[in-house]
Design goal:
- There is one protein chain.
- This protein is mostly helical.
- Among the domains are: 108-268, no CATH class; 449-660, no CATH class.
- It is built from 26 helices and 6 strands.
- The radius of gyration is 29 Å and the shape is globular.
- Mean pLDDT is 84; it is low at 277-288.
Length: 661
Amino acid sequence: MAENENGPLFETRAVKGRFLFRLFAASMAVGIGFICYYRLRLLPVASGKLERWAWIGLFHCELWFSFYWFLTVICRWNPVYRFPHKNRLSLRYEKELPGVDIFVCTADPSAEPPSMVMNTVLSVMAYDYPPDKLNIYLSDDGASELTFYAMLEASSFSKQWLPFCKKFKVEPRSPEAYFRTAVEPDSHHPLMLKHWLLVKKQYEEAKMRVERKQIPEEIRKQHKEFREWNFVSSRNDHQTIFKMLIDGRHPNAVDAEGNVLPTLVYLAREKRPQFHHHFKAGAMNALLEFPGLDANGGPCYIGTGCFHRRDALCGKKYNETCKVDWKRLNRREVEENATVLEETCKVLASCSFEQNTQWGNEMGLKYGCPAEDIITGLSIQCRGWKSIYLNPERESFLGIAPTSLLTMLVQHKRWAEGHFQIFLSRYCSLLYGHNRIPLKLQLAYCAGNLWAANSLPTLYYVVVPCFCLLKDIPLFPKVSSPWVLPFAYVAIAHRAYSLGEFLWCGGTFQAWCNDQRMWLFKRTTSYFFALCDTILKLLGYSNPTFVITAKVADEDVSRRYEQELMEFGDSSPMFVVLASLAMLNLFSGFGAIEKLVFNADHSEVSDRFGLQILLCFLLVALNWPVYNAVFFRKDNGGMPAPVTYKSITFALLVSIVAMST
């Protein structure tokens, strides 16, 4: 026992199968080398101006794909996993654990319903951690009185929910997620069943009151904070609203069984039209992780699901004096009562507090970029702090992903735009991280920062080979030529390894196929629009905007999502691009079939254009959900008629041009 108590708090283990991955990567590198040699060797043979330029363009795309593949290999070359020993931590530091502040951010009650925010707050309040050292801060950038009301309901229901979680060993600890899947206790335990049903009823009543979207008059009279909304002009023009809903230091802040409750704070920081509020980064500052990256110098901060040391987040450089004396920190006491603290903290959340300070520059989350989390994490690592990736067997954090295709594409467009802006700024990891972080980590950051740049070679590979197929221009080696082998090996081996890895991680073949579709859709729409917007912004023709990802969908959308049907019911420019590319691939597929069926020398056609035809048919297969939405679906998730007409017209014009010249 003594040996275990004095052992390390966690251990690091290399991921199994690294040798196989490195062998696979080496074989891929050889195949890529042969492809590049083939392109260079046969470039002078290309006859005709159009053929030569198509060939050169394809070669540049393949060079880009090879370079980007190299970046991803770096990220995956030496993955490690961390395994914590929680029992040793408890034995050694049970009475000396540090205080933990948890930030929950929300910005729009329509996209992030108050009942969902209430569930999020209740789940973190129920963490298996000393409640007197747990502080939860709800940052409401939408300044919604409905969200504030939901926090009042959460503070009240937490007195029942927290002891209930301990008694029934509840997982997950979000009431909504738990009661949706949990089974009632056995009727042979009537007291336990009665308690379970009572808490479930209390939750459902609290949820119903919140979702009614009407605050009872008696509640307004009880809580003077609701008067604050009398002075709120809009969500972007209002004073600071701050309320300590539960003061964990107060003797009355206990649950139904007399246990101490965590501190719960609501904050809507001041916003004024003349002050930039810096979106989420500003909200986080007002309140003041992956296996391969871990081995390369530490995973980057992606905005959620992580813990920071306060010193690291507040701009301090790491040195040997940064070791924390938990005993000393735990002896610190704050004498002010809740009312005094509220008034003091209102000043910290005002618009003018950060003016002419280092907040948003050298302290806190960085300003000036949609991907504030990435540059914040990079700057922390460049100051000498280390980060590690922890992925325990039981999920530490659960979130909600978009359930509609357009919402997902818009979200990825925002991420890709922020990443590309970083690459073009002084925070580019190759510049900002030079001599500060390992070269492998600098290159690993580039894999994300260059998402948007992937759009152009992908679009070229989707359009030009199909266009040239209609014009009888071959762009790949003949099937009978030995040069077909490196192309076939790289394509098949890369996708086969991807599928094997996907299945090994618990996925299914159908899910993998959908993942390949999303890979194509993101690169041809989200990343392309992100690239264009970034260039326009650099030229001064575009202003940055922040689009909040909707966390809910209506019943029809949710039902189609459960049926694994993609949602195309919006007349979005992204869908015009998707449908146009899909129709061009389809018309090229028809052209390929016509060549194979009606050409006198079938073998010559299949030999010259075999790889091109396979690429075209593969794209058609990946685009099946688009064709389904255009031609067959009759529900509201089908492709809108204007999008269909535009896409068919565009694809027909391109096809006619290709076949007529």
